TrEMBL record:
Annotated region (Disordered), positions in chain: 25-95
Organism per entry: Oryzias sinensis
Residue ranges that the Swiss-Prot or TrEMBL entry lists as coiled coil: none
Lineage start: Eukaryota, Metazoa, Chordata, Craniata, Vertebrata
UniProt xrefs under InterPro entries: PGBD
Protein name as catalogued: PiggyBac transposable element-derived protein domain-containing protein
Biased composition, class Acidic residues, residue ranges: 25-56
Residue ranges, compositional bias (Polar residues): 68-77
Domain of life: Eukaryota
Pfam families: DDE_Tnp_1_7 (PF13843)
Domain PiggyBac transposable element-derived protein intervals: 123-454
């Protein structure tokens, strides 16, 4: 049976009308893992997060229930373990609500820059894969194609490149990451749109030689930049991301892992991630939509260099550059009292789990022996609030916030602090991005790490 060739418009409509836009499920609730480790490699979500939006289920500090959760032994002030910070067991009345908290000067959603440049599907696509990026790929791919295939190579143009990228995207929409490429082009049970776009031989040729830099000059550039093989195209792409979308009041900063098991000088092993091995990318995402607002590839420590100190703080400050009035939600790898102070200087707040070995914490808030289940202990300074919550006996979760200024508790059976409910509802921006990109992955089997990133 002969296959009908699709027009470009029909192919694009087929892609955008697919089920790729199905709703993302809610993020999971805080686990009871010891020392606040809350990574979820299986991306299992719970419905507890919905309760965080029920403002009627919050007890204010003046309610009688609050006194039941704060034991009499916690009255007064506590010194931090390093002796540099004095924590109070009562909220600072003079602190009030921070004037810059959640006051954003940008309308969440697509920017004016993006809206005024989109007329149709093609112009929307070209916002992300811009002409400078296409020019880099075309020039470097044609250079490599002539080197490998010589006179057999037919130079690619913009139409050819867009067709190749479109096939990758559509294969992701069909959830065909694990499907053999040959089956996509199969005459009997393949998908006609692939056959109508280009031959399987052409697809394999492009996949073999697609490049993002000049391999003849790569060695010299790689001495100072491990990302040299894709640096120019990557930088141009991440520069575009903040120009197209304004995040909402909550931004999640976290790490994500691009699956890859081939040779790569900065490949990471992360046992808590589904893929285990791959390329680590720091990401700042809108907590609600999971739009990747800013990203940075982690290329490891410099050759012969010492491990980076205060890496978590450096990452959050760089990922939040350009934001103002937002709250930054992060996990215990990043959260620290000093980070909260630095973000406040930039008119940003911080909310995150915190490790129990942090020197800025008072020893009193770490004690769990004898504490009843679902009890909470709060500590306050003029700049931050920390809570120790026991989800079960002999287990506690520590959360620090520069956004919250009181000891509000929910009226649910588990009496969770509002700080934890807010953390649960805003922590999943990057995890959700990981989930949907894994579900609709455009990645094909490759031994080259630049293609894994691409």
């Amino acid at each position: 049976m002969s296959s009908r060739r699709f027009t470009a418009e029909e192919a694009l409509l087929l892609f955008f009308d697919s089920d790729a836009e199905e709703e993302i499920s809610e993020i999971e609730d805080l686990s009871d893992a010891e020392d606040n480790v809350i990574d979820d490699p299986d991306f299992q979500f719970s419905d507890d997060v919905e309760d965080s939006e029920d403002e009627s289920a919050v007890v204010s500090p003046s309610d009688e229930n609050l006194g039941m959760e704060q034991s009499s032994s916690t009255e007064g002030t506590w010194a931090s373990k390093d002796g540099n910070i004095k924590w109070s067991t009562s909220p600072h009345q003079s602190r009030g609500r921070l004037s810059f908290s959640n006051i954003i000067k940008m309308t969440p959603g697509p920017t004016r820059f993006a809206v005024t440049r989109v007329d149709d599907i093609q112009s929307a696509f070209q916002l992300f894969i811009s002409q400078p990026i296409e020019r880099i790929i075309l020039d470097m791919t044609n250079l490599e194609g002539r080197r490998v295939f010589q006179e057999k190579w037919k130079s690619l143009d913009q139409t050819d490149l867009n067709a190749y990228i479109g096939i990758l995207i559509l294969a992701g929409v069909y959830r065909s990451k694990g499907e053999a490429t040959s089956s996509l082009w199969n005459e009997e049970n393949g998908r006609p749109i692939f056959q109508a776009t280009m031959s399987l031989e052409t697809f394999h040729m492009i996949s073999r030689v697609i490049r993002f830099d000049n391999r003849d000059t790569r060695v010299g550039r790689r001495e100072s930049d491990e990302l040299a093989a894709i640096r120019d195209a990557w930088d141009k792409w991440v520069e575009i991301l903040p120009l197209l979308y304004n995040p909402g009041p909550h931004v999640t900063v976290d790490e994500r892992l691009v699956p890859f098991r081939g040779r790569c000088p900065f490949r990471q092993y992360m046992p808590n991630k589904p893929a285990k091995y791959g390329i680590k990318i720091w990401a700042a995402c809108d907590a609600k939509s999971s739009y990747a607002w800013k990203m940075q590839v982690y290329t490891g420590k410099p050759p012969g260099g010492a491990p980076e100190k205060n890496q978590g703080m450096r990452v959050v400050l760089e990922m939040s550059e350009g934001l103002q009035g937002h709250n930054i939600t992060c996990d215990n790898f990043f959260t620290s009292y000093r980070l909260g102070e630095e973000l406040q200087k930039r008119k940003l707040t911080m909310l995150g789990t915190v490790r129990r070995n942090k020197p800025e914490l008072p020893s009193e808030i770490l004690k769990i022996q004898g504490r009843p289940m679902h009890s909470s202990i709060f500590a306050f300074t003029e700049k931050a609030t920390v809570v120790s919550y026991c989800p079960k006996r002999n287990k506690n979760v520590l959360v620090m916030s520069t956004m919250h200024t009181d000891a509000s508790l929910s009226t649910r059976d588990d009496m969770k602090p509002q700080m934890i409910l807010d953390y649960n509802s805003t922590k999943g921006g990057v995890d959700n991005l990981d989930k949907v990109t894994a579900t609709y992955s455009c990645q094909r089997k490759t031994a080259r790490w630049p293609m894994a990133i691409f």
